[in-house]
Amino acid sequence: MKYINELRDGDNVRGVYLCKGKRVAQTRNGKPYDNLLIQDKSGTIDGKIWDPNSGGIADYDEKDFVEIVGEVISYNNNLQLNIRQLRVAKEGEYNPGDYMPTTEKSVDEMYDELLSFINRIENTYLKKALSFYFVEDAAFIQCFKNHSAAKTVHHGFAGGLLEHTLSVVKFCEYMIGAYPILNADLLYAAALFHDIGKIRELSAFPDNDYTDAGQLLGHIVIGVEMIDESIRHIEGFPVVLANELKHCVVAHHGELEYGSPKKPALAEALALNFADCTDAKMQTMTELLKDREDTGWIGYNRLFESNIRKTSE
Amino acid sequence: MKYINELRDGDNVRGVYLCKGKRVAQTRNGKPYDNLLIQDKSGTIDGKIWDPNSGGIADYDEKDFVEIVGEVISYNNNLQLNIRQLRVAKEGEYNPGDYMPTTEKSVDEMYDELLSFINRIENTYLKKALSFYFVEDAAFIQCFKNHSAAKTVHHGFAGGLLEHTLSVVKFCEYMIGAYPILNADLLYAAALFHDIGKIRELSAFPDNDYTDAGQLLGHIVIGVEMIDESIRHIEGFPVVLANELKHCVVAHHGELEYGSPKKPALAEALALNFADCTDAKMQTMTELLKDREDTGWIGYNRLFESNIRKTSE
Amino acid sequence: MKYINELRDGDNVRGVYLCKGKRVAQTRNGKPYDNLLIQDKSGTIDGKIWDPNSGGIADYDEKDFVEIVGEVISYNNNLQLNIRQLRVAKEGEYNPGDYMPTTEKSVDEMYDELLSFINRIENTYLKKALSFYFVEDAAFIQCFKNHSAAKTVHHGFAGGLLEHTLSVVKFCEYMIGAYPILNADLLYAAALFHDIGKIRELSAFPDNDYTDAGQLLGHIVIGVEMIDESIRHIEGFPVVLANELKHCVVAHHGELEYGSPKKPALAEALALNFADCTDAKMQTMTELLKDREDTGWIGYNRLFESNIRKTSE
Amino acid sequence: MKYINELRDGDNVRGVYLCKGKRVAQTRNGKPYDNLLIQDKSGTIDGKIWDPNSGGIADYDEKDFVEIVGEVISYNNNLQLNIRQLRVAKEGEYNPGDYMPTTEKSVDEMYDELLSFINRIENTYLKKALSFYFVEDAAFIQCFKNHSAAKTVHHGFAGGLLEHTLSVVKFCEYMIGAYPILNADLLYAAALFHDIGKIRELSAFPDNDYTDAGQLLGHIVIGVEMIDESIRHIEGFPVVLANELKHCVVAHHGELEYGSPKKPALAEALALNFADCTDAKMQTMTELLKDREDTGWIGYNRLFESNIRKTSE
Amino acid sequence: MKYINELRDGDNVRGVYLCKGKRVAQTRNGKPYDNLLIQDKSGTIDGKIWDPNSGGIADYDEKDFVEIVGEVISYNNNLQLNIRQLRVAKEGEYNPGDYMPTTEKSVDEMYDELLSFINRIENTYLKKALSFYFVEDAAFIQCFKNHSAAKTVHHGFAGGLLEHTLSVVKFCEYMIGAYPILNADLLYAAALFHDIGKIRELSAFPDNDYTDAGQLLGHIVIGVEMIDESIRHIEGFPVVLANELKHCVVAHHGELEYGSPKKPALAEALALNFADCTDAKMQTMTELLKDREDTGWIGYNRLFESNIRKTSE
Amino acid sequence: MKYINELRDGDNVRGVYLCKGKRVAQTRNGKPYDNLLIQDKSGTIDGKIWDPNSGGIADYDEKDFVEIVGEVISYNNNLQLNIRQLRVAKEGEYNPGDYMPTTEKSVDEMYDELLSFINRIENTYLKKALSFYFVEDAAFIQCFKNHSAAKTVHHGFAGGLLEHTLSVVKFCEYMIGAYPILNADLLYAAALFHDIGKIRELSAFPDNDYTDAGQLLGHIVIGVEMIDESIRHIEGFPVVLANELKHCVVAHHGELEYGSPKKPALAEALALNFADCTDAKMQTMTELLKDREDTGWIGYNRLFESNIRKTSE
């Protein structure tokens, strides 16, 4: 089987892919056909089943893994997969990990680096609170390593939550060096915890969509509850410290209209807000421009409220 | 001792009052004097100590209960208390309850009415969650009955939290009758719980000021944690129901910029938001106009972004 | 004839319907066809005329009542009506009332209830002003009973204006009981009058669209003119009372950016604003969720700025 | 009697002035004194009565015309009037017109120029509607000529409403020449009518303050009612034209948040909005800078959201 | 060759046109076809090549001038050009000027009028700065005369920059007469210079799109640099005057959120802002309504945030 | 002479200080006195001259260096200097550098570090443009080293511009390591140049106030002009690179409403915006909290829109 980013005009394809989307349409003559969004870890391609009632096309649904037989054509400068046969694949015929966009970095190395920051923390309460999840909770660790940090936008791939969290932690490391006012232990702990609520806000891959709890509460409130869960297991955790830690998480979006019910009131909350925001925006810019080869303007981007382009040289 | 709202020009005063505020000032000739804000449950009056170093004036501080000897004068249409003697009163010389603004309604009757709503709830999980605090937790009940709902603005008096909560619950009762879409049990529970976080956001009277937790987390996040605390003690509490209940509390300010990290996504959350907002605004208007006898314009009010006045007969 | 909400896949249809919309389209082969929006009181269905030049298809236009012969098919989970024959129906062949979405409540009962509120008003000036329209003006009464309260959004059906007005009045009744500051007569009168400008802002069914006056002036300014018209016929109507009544109508949208040229400056104006806003939002939520059977998320709603869903249970 | 702008340090003053403001104050020694704002048409000066209980000081109140005996001193680069004697003047002892800030232009010439624009209008309905007030209604004319256009801000002097209206009309004359799309008759009529509601929104001089109707309805709604009053007297006034005329007045503030319940939807409404806004801002700038002799920065101005200064030669 | 605005249903066409846009599409049967936007100075028309691989259709691209053979048909009330033959035209076969939307006024007369304003300026420094471009720089003059003032919106045609600039200058002439506070020389100079940055912000016709410098810097910053370029060549140009002139250009959008880094701080900057804004909006309205024959509502316009229509009469 | 931060209650003072502010006031008895703001590099103290007409008090003015004889008293918990004698000091009697707030870091070391970043730049055009100012222009270097970065807010002290610029450059160094998308040379050059316009926007110490050019143009536009000045001296400077560099400076405030006429459109512009904003906010927080010893709430801060406090530990 070929990865999607290796397909070329004229290729004949036989392989198992994830059917990420399915939409029934109709030609103007009243003839129905299917539009599919075919995905593997390397990318996505549009698929068409022009004759859905043909014998070769079995029943299938969105989010099924399907074996496909078809041909790649080039249409209006985009590749498209005309599908002649399709059947739902059985478990064992495929490795789910092959079908999700995934961080390009080593998950294990990133996780080790994350742990090294926990080890630097001197405050035993904060260290225990972090260990409760990041060291002792195997299910959490497994989930955290494979989670995305978003449904779309930036870091929307398996390992994205880990990659973003590490990036924010390292950003905080820089700021701790630059601004003596910052309490290193508190800021590291807050940075490590800041997005753990996403574990429950977004479902795991290949679904990667908002959960009911995510819609109703959001990852900030969920994150505070998770921190609270950890703190309850630690005898003598100072109340003021607990509130300061939660505050940093509560305020990390920086503005009420971005979903933080409180504005940053501590230097560490402010620093975390900048680290999170900067990493999110720089990563978004990276994802938007990474496959570009020229420095042409790519069109108005709503997040940046500007047309954008790669820099020359 | 006379209550402050009974004082008249020329009265000689001897009695214990709360020194709500103290500010040292200086005449232009360099002579220091003290500005006091004197309070009891009936209201406040400005006090002046023109000779703070006189023998009759003992050491005292803000928030002390002080015995005062002085005279009421009328100055520029306002009464003012010129204080000749002052000493800090001892516990036992006064009843703290006499010095806080307090609801004009019966706290016990209001609380009984609140309980009657809990009794109407059929869903056993929600009923148990409410009983955890409102029926079984004596310290909570004591505190809830005497708390204010705000530092200033509306319901900023002892019993104000109870009065506001009951008013919102009854508002919801009306809406449950008017809009069949509403789930009565969920809405009653959410209304009863919506401001419990204020117990920890604001300190008790006579202080009635933001606590550290209140500044850092706010009553919405604190309230969710308190609900969570209760739910953890109830076996089998349905996850979806828990999230719906918390959502209503999370979203009850209605807008992100008012401190709700989520906008109302359920009909009950929407209804609670309207009940809370309407009661707050109607009570504020009531407090602003209640002592007015005429229908003259009282000046621009920043909350209402308008000049306001009483309505003619 | 079957109502549209009774049609099922495979049904053969012959009957008169309202052609609410007509749009000519073209297949990619250059063959023209017609897209219709077919409506009766029970709902709407898409219609297609694949061969508009066929002998069975007579000339017709948008907003015509047309007799249709065709067949219901199910396409991509939606029903669709393939039309083989069509002709414009003559007056007498149909009852226009069968083709408009209409309140599910009894118009006469609602109107009687509305009148009962007028009868409660003790202030003779306000009572006369209301009677001028609601009791004495038969044409107004006829129109008011059958008008919608909106082009789309909430209460966009015949009787909707009446239903919404009554709902707001009853909301005010609750508030009058809850907030003693409110002047009952003024608030009832303002509530009854608040949307009468919609009589002239929106044309009658089946058109139900903005009139020229509606576009140029809006229902608030029109409403003030209509109240003014009534007041001019009442000798000795107190000027202050007239201004207070008009103010409540002027300010009932609550914010300048929602089209009220003044913010509420009286308690009654504030109360009316809340009653109107709450009823509008609760009704919108009801209309969005009423045909849902599950509690799945229905997608982002722009009015509520949130994804929404039905509550569990 | 000397006009206020002629007073100099050391002058002895005896004359009748308007007491525009009165505020009782107290020295730090507890000695009361009075702060006055003394006004005549040429300007204002601060007054002090250091001994209000002296025999020479009779009872008086804000907005009284008072005969004053005192001395001008220079204090911190500002003149100040120390008042030794004061009594309320009787009618006949003064000419009210001498005590209001007044346009520097000829009221009669401006009014004649205004009438010349009415004479240019060819549409008989619009001409009649204007004549109803500007030609036939002597009381209106008298009032319009002497009214201000604002409580403070721009054109806040007698004749200011006339001066502003004429200026806007002439601005429209320019635009009619520049933009052929404009209907001259409609735009002239709308410009002449655009602020007539101010006649009832603001009380006459020397009070010049918001009336009850002004607070409750504002000059836009009042203006529409006044136009409506005129139109009712003109048989056959075309409905569409009436709505267009009212629309221009309704929309002349340009934005909902500036108090227009509708945004400009006609070219004439747009033009009127620009003419009004430009004249208001240019006049405000003129009033702010007119007495400046140098080009120094005069400090942050909230209306212009900028520090401002005169331009160099 | 016929101009596009003269084409009628059934016409056979042979002539050279500008291919303003080209988009490849596909019928539902998988058959590709081309959508073209055909333009000449009189307007645009949609073109279709149903058989792009036919022998008569040569290679071509967007922005080519192409000779077309085809037939006009009427489809859904719009004309459409079905193209049977197409080839790229050679230079010399067409006059580029025939293919751009162009001002309807005389460019030379407008330019002469512009120069007459420069001649009125008495301040020699300002006059020299203007002459540097408008009198002495032939390339600039050529470019300025043929440039548009916008990519779309108002004045988006050849000569549009000149037409808009002249219109703003004349608007300023009116204001100089009306508001004595204005320094005529400074305002004329600022008005003449205010949009010269558009010369480099937008590329010339037929491209008329944002340049790289336009995207990165915008016409305000570019305009300041161009003025600076001119001033450097004039010995003794007073620094204060230079800053005032640049300020007027910097602030001419009036609001930071419209791209002016400074709000108007001088009367002339304010006047220029109004003149520019008013002319832009009046011209936009003119362009929107100019081809309308009736007074029907044309639908919601995003710039005006309102539905708009022509005025009656 | 003692530095201001060493003064204690009861100290007798004789020494030269900067009179940063002077305001004439009046006791309620009509007796004038002077309020002074006395400054040296260590801080400020309020001064009072209770008898300005005494023989010991010579003429003086704001921004004079004055020799003072007086006594320190403690008043309402603040120190105050009662001045008995005052005369303007002559040049030579004081060292101006002793009277300005100054960076606590070594200016020369910071400048050397700044130069080391210039040396890292490989692009010869960017390196030359930077050298034009930072290496070759002695007057610029002198000025840059001693300038503040603000009138008030953050880095409002001599050396502040250098300290802030270096901090931003180092922040960019971190980001260049973290985000491979960034062009190091461009980002370093932009960071070094980003605030050079402040050299001309703010006057030098001890004045440190907005200049005329600063008010009219602002440091962004001035900065672009200064970069342009440098680039003009460098043959062959690539146009695209020049525009990219200027863009980064133009967009470094990040939002139009913060005074950037363009939003960041390049990754480097985005990074610079974050570095600048983060450093400004972290430094402001540092300055607000640096002298605090406890973790009490210090009150609502308008910049942060929140009450703030030091973190515990």
TrEMBL record, chains A, B, C, D, E, F:
Domain of life according to the entry: Bacteria
Alphabetical list of SUPFAM superfamilies matching this protein: HD-domain/PDEase-like
Keywords for this protein: Hydrolase
InterPro entries: HD/PDEase_dom, HD_domain, HDIG_dom, NA-bd_OB-fold, YhaM_exoribonuc/phosphodiest
Pfam families with a match to the protein in the record: HD
UniProt domain HD: residue ranges: 161-281
Entries under Gene3D superfamilies matching the protein: Hypothetical protein af1432 (1.10.3210.10), Nucleic acid-binding proteins (2.40.50.140)
CDD domains in the record: HDc, YhaM_OBF_like
PANTHER family in UniProt: 3'-5' EXORIBONUCLEASE YHAM
UniProt protein name: HD domain-containing protein
Species name: Aequitasia blattaphilus
UniProt lineage: Bacteria, Bacillati, Bacillota, Clostridia, Lachnospirales
